[in-house]
Write a structure and sequence with these properties.
heterodimer, A: alpha+beta, Cytochrome-c3 Hydrogenase, chain B, three-stranded antiparallel sheet, 38% helix, globular, B: mainly alpha, 14 helices
C-alpha cells in the first residue's frame, strides 16, 4: 500500500535539471526528539528525507554482562532497568526463566499479582507512547494528559513496591510482598477513573483531522515486513496479525483471563494508535478480574528458604551493634542448579514500548552452576527508526557476534522516498 | 456614505496643538501599549494552557498566581550571556530580532480603540497593517540565514514559505471586508459596522482570516517553522538572552496585533453591542482578549500539520474559498446598491 499523502516527486524526476544539492543533517543525539539516545543521519531534499541512517548504541547499559557477576536473586534488580517503561515485564521474563530452570512455580496469588502489575504497566507504557507521540506532533495537551494518568499508576506501583520505577518486585518464586492495605482501593479508583480518561484521548485525537492526517498512511509496515524484521507487539497487531503471547503461549495463568486481542488492518501509525487505545481498555478488564481473584488470601512466595526472601531467618545484634542474620549467607551464596541447562528460553510479550518492541526474551545459554557460568543474553529488537539489531552473547560470556540489519521499516524496502514523519515517527 | 465624511482626528491632536509633542505622546502610548499587552497575552497563555492541561502554571513570581512571571523572565533574559555562534554573520544575526519585532510595534499606530483614541488614522490603514505584519518574516529569514545552522535555515525557509502561502488568503479575506466597508481606514471600517458586524455577512471570511493569521504568526497548529520535535526551534535555535526575548515578544505582539486587526475587520472594532454601556476602548480590549484566548486555546487542542499538508491546505482550500468570498461580496455589493 502506498501512503495516500505522498509528497510530490523530487524535481529531477520531472526535468532532470532542477534538483540542487541535498542537505546532510545530523539529527541527534543532542536533539529535543532523540534526547541523547538516537542519532539520525538524514539526507534532505528540501522538506523531503531521501535517506536516513540511524546510529544507535547511545544507551547501552551492559545489563547482560553485569548479571553474569551477580547471583540469580540479584539479577532481578538489573533486568528491571533494561526498559524503564516496562519494569514488571522485564522482571517477570527473568523470573519465569529462572523458575523454569529450578522447576518451581510461584503461588497462585503471586501469579495474579504479577499479571495485575504487568497489565497496569502495559497501560502506563501505552500512556507514555501516547504522551510522547503527541509531543512529537505538537499536541502538548495530550503529552500532559498521558503523563498525568501514568502518574496515578506510578503511585499504585510506589504503594505496592516502594518505587515508581525499577521495582524489583517480581522475584524468583513469587513477588516480594503482598499488596498494602490501601492498594486495592487505589487500583479500584483507578479502574473507575481510567475508562473516562481513555474516552477523553479518543475525543481529542481519534477524529481530529490533523491527527488523522499526520498518522494515517504514515509508517506503513505490512504484516510480512513485520514478520521478516521480527516486529511484534502493537505494530504487528496493527498490521492485522492477532499475535499475542498471552494467548498463544500463555504464562502466569493468562489463559484463565477474559480479554480480546486487538487488531487493525491498516498497518500504519493511526492503526497502532487505535490498537494501543483499545489495548488499554483490555488491560483494564484484566486488572478488574485480577482484583476479584485477589479476594482470596494466600502466600505470595514459595516456601523454600533457599529461594524465598529470608525474612523469617533469625536476626540478632551483638554487643558492637552489628547485625547478624542467620542463614543469610547461605541465601546470598545463591542456589545452584544441579544439571546442565542449555538454551532454556522463556518468551513473553512485551510490545508495549513506544514503538512496540519485539517479544522480550531471556536466554540462558550453556553454563552450569551460577550466572557467571550461565551467560544471560537478551535478544531485543530495536526497530526504532528502522533498524533491527540483534546482539547475541556466547556461552562463555564474550560478545560473539553483533548483527545489525538496516531495513526501512517505514516503507517498502525499495522505496527510499520517505517524508520526515515516516522516517521518524514509527 | 456618511461615515466617510467624519474624518475625525486623534484625541491627542485635539488636546495638544504642537505636532511634535503630540507625536511624542503618540509614540510613547503606542510603545507602552506594545510593552504591556503582549505580556498580558503571554501570561494568559501560561495560565490558560496550564489549566487546560490540568496544571497550575506559574504560581510564585509576584505572589498572586505568578502574575509577574513574564517580568521575571524578562529580567532573566537580560542577564543571560549573549552568544553569537562563531560561524554566524554577526551583523545580520544581531539585526534580525529588531527586524522581526519593530513591524509589530509600528502596526499598533493605526489600531483604533475608539472613534478618537488612536495614533494615526491612515488612508491606507488596512494596506499598512498587512504590509507591516509581513515584514516581520524578513527578520526570521535573516535569523535563519545568519545563524549558520542547518536547523535554523530549514526553519527560516519554512517560515518564508508559510508566509507566502498564507499571506494571500489573509489579503484576499481582508479585501472582501474593504469592499463591503468601502474604505481602508480602520475607523471607517469600524463605523461601517454600525448595524451589524461583518462577521455576520462574512463568517467564512472571518474563519479564513483567523486561520491565515494563525499561520502567519506560526502559532499551532501551523507552527512548523518552530516545530521543536523536528527542527529544535527553527530560526531561533541559536539565539539567547535578550535577542531571543525579542523574538518571543514579537510572537506575542503578533497575537495581539492580529487579534486587534480581526476585531476591527470582523467584530465591529471598538463598537459595543447595542445597549451595553461599556466604554469603547474597553470593548476593543475585550475583543482582543477573546480572540487571543481562542488562539491560545487552539494550541492546547491541535497537533501540528506537516509541511506539505500545511501548504496544500492554503493553496487548495483557503485561497479558492476567499476568491469565492470576494466574488459573492462583489456581486451583492453591486446588486444591493
Amino acid at each position: 500500500m502506498s501512503a495516500p499523502d505522498e509528497m510530490p516527486a523530487p524535481a529531477d524526476e520531472v526535468s532532470g535539471e532542477l534538483r540542487q544539492e541535498t542537505m546532510i543533517i545530523n539529527m541527534g543525539p543532542q536533539h529535543p526528539s532523540t534526547h541523547g539516545v538516537l542519532r539520525l543521519l538524514l539526507e534532505l531534499d528540501g522538506e523531503q528525507v531521501i535517506a536516513c541512517q540511524p546510529i544507535i548504541g547511545y544507551l547501552h547499559t551492559g545489563i547482560e554482562k553485569n548479571t553474569e557477576y551477580r547471583t540469580w536473586q540479584q539479577g532481578v534488580v538489573y533486568v528491571t532497568r533494561a526498559d524503564y517503561l516496562s519494569p514488571f515485564f522485564n522482571e517477570l521474563a527473568y523470573c519465569l526463566a529462572v523458575e523454569r530452570l529450578l522447576g518451581i512455580e510461584a503461588p497462585s496469588r503471586a501469579q495474579v499479582l504479577r499479571v495485575m502489575f504487568c497489565e497496569l504497566n502495559r497501560i502506563s507504557s501505552h500512556l507514555v507512547y501516547l504522551a510522547t507521540g503527541g509531543l512529537e506532533l505538537g499536541a502538548i495537551s495530550v503529552m500532559l494528559y498521558g503523563f498525568r494518568e501514568r502518574e496515578v499508576i506510578l503511585d499504585i506501583f510506589e504503594a505496592a513496591t516502594g518505587l515508581r520505577m525499577n521495582h524489583a518486585y517480581v522475584r524468583i518464586g513469587g513477588v516480594v510482598m503482598d499488596l498494602p492495605d490501601d492498594g486495592e482501593d487505589k487500583i479500584r479508583s483507578f479502574l473507575e477513573m481510567m475508562p473516562g480518561r481513555i474516552g477523553e484521548y479518543e475525543a481529542l485525537l481519534a477524529a481530529n483531522p490533523i491527527w488523522v492526517q499526520r498518522n494515517s498512511g504514515v509508517g506503513y509496515l505490512s504484516a510480512e515486513d513485520c514478520l521478516a524484521l521480527g516486529v511484534t507487539g502493537p505494530i504487528l497487531r496493527a498490521a492485522g496479525v492477532p499475535a499475542d503471547l498471552r494467548k498463544d503461549e500463555p504464562y502466569s495463568g493468562y489463559e484463565t483471563y477474559d480479554f480480546d486481542v486487538v487488531t487493525r488492518e491498516e498497518a500504519d501509525a493511526y492503526a497502532r494508535f487505535a490498537v494501543r487505545i483499545e489495548e488499554m481498555r483490555q488491560s483494564l478488564r484484566i486488572v478488574a478480574q485480577c482484583l476479584e481473584r485477589l479476594r482470596e488470601p494466600g502466600p505470595v512466595m514459595v516456601e523454600d528458604p533457599k529461594v524465598a526472601w529470608p525474612a523469617k531467618l533469625p536476626l540478632w545484634v551483638d554487643r558492637n551493634a552489628k547485625l547478624y542474620v542467620g542463614g543469610f549467607a547461605g541465601w546470598l551464596d545463591d542456589f545452584r542448579f544441579g544439571g546442565v541447562h542449555t538454551g532454556d528460553t522463556v518468551t513473553m510479550p512485551e510490545g508495549v514500548k513506544l514503538t512496540g518492541k519485539a517479544a522480550y526474551k531471556i536466554h540462558f545459554l550453556g553454563g552450569r552452576l551460577n550466572p557467571a557460568e550461565h551467560s544471560v543474553a537478551q535478544t531485543i529488537g530495536i526497530e526504532h527508526a528502522g533498524r533491527v539489531t540483534t546482539i547475541e552473547i556466547s556461552p562463555n560470556g564474550t560478545m560473539q557476534q553483533v548483527e545489525t540489519e538496516v531495513a526501512p521499516v517505514n516503507a517498502k524496502p525499495e522505496d527510499k522516498n520517505v517524508v520526515p514523519d515516516k522516517a521518524k515517527k514509527e | 456614505m456618511t461615515f466617510l465624511a467624519q474624518a475625525s482626528g486623534s484625541i491627542v491632536d485635539q488636546w495638544v496643538s504642537s505636532f511634535w509633542i503630540a507625536l511624542l505622546i503618540k509614540a510613547v502610548a503606542v510603545l507602552g501599549f506594545f510593552l504591556v499587552a503582549p505580556l498580558a497575552v503571554g501570561y494568559m497563555e501560561h495560565k490558560v494552557l496550564a489549566h487546560m492541561q490540568s496544571r497550575f502554571g506559574p504560581m510564585e513570581a509576584g505572589n498572586f498566581h505568578g502574575w509577574a512571571q513574564l517580568v521575571a523572565d524578562g529580567v532573566k533574559f537580560v542577564q543571560k550571556e549573549d552568544v553569537i555562534p562563531e560561524a554566524a554573520d554577526p551583523t545580520v544575526f544581531s539585526l534580525a530580532p529588531a527586524v522581526a519585532l519593530i513591524p509589530y510595534i509600528v502596526l499598533f499606530v493605526t489600531i483604533p480603540f475608539s472613534k478618537t483614541v488612536f495614533a494615526e488614522n491612515l488612508d491606507i490603514g488596512v494596506f499598512f497593517l498587512l504590509a507591516m505584519s509581513s515584514v516581520s518574516v524578513i527578520g526570521v529569514l535573516m535569523a535563519g540565514w545568519s545563524s549558520a545552522n542547518k536547523f535554523s535555515l530549514i526553519g527560516a525557509l519554512r517560515a518564508a514559505a508559510q508566509l507566502i502561502a498564507y499571506e494571500l488568503p489573509l489579503v484576499l479575506a481582508t479585501a472582501a471586508v474593504v469592499m463591503q466597508a468601502g474604505t481602508m481606514r480602520l475607523v471607517g471600517i469600524t463605523e461601517a459596522q454600525g448595524h451589524y458586524w461583518f462577521v455576520a455577512t462574512q463568517p467564512i471570511g472571518f474563519l479564513i482570516f483567523m486561520i491565515a493569521a494563525l499561520a502567519e504568526l506560526t502559532r499551532p497548529p501551523f507552527d512548523m517553522p518552530v516545530a521543536d520535535s523536528e527542527i529544535i526551534f527553527g530560526a531561533y535555535t541559536e539565539y539567547t538572552g535578550l535577542k531571543f526575548a525579542f523574538f518571543l515578544l514579537s510572537e506575542y505582539g503578533g497575537i495581539v496585533a492580529l487579534s486587534a486587526i480581526a476585531s476591527v475587520l470582523y467584530l465591529g472594532g471598538y463598537r459595543a453591542l447595542p445597549g451595553l454601556p461599556i466604554p469603547e476602548p474597553l470593548m476593543m480590549l475585550g475583543k482582543i482578549t477573546v480572540l487571543s484566548f481562542i488562539v491560545i486555546w487552539l494550541r492546547a487542542t491541535y497537533p501540528r500539520l506537516r509541511e506539505d499538508q500545511l501548504q496544500r491546505f492554503s493553496w487548495l482550500v483557503l485561497i479558492p474559498l476567499t476568491l469565492v468570498q470576494i466574488m459573492v461580496v462583489a456581486i451583492l455589493k453591486v446588486a444591493m446598491r
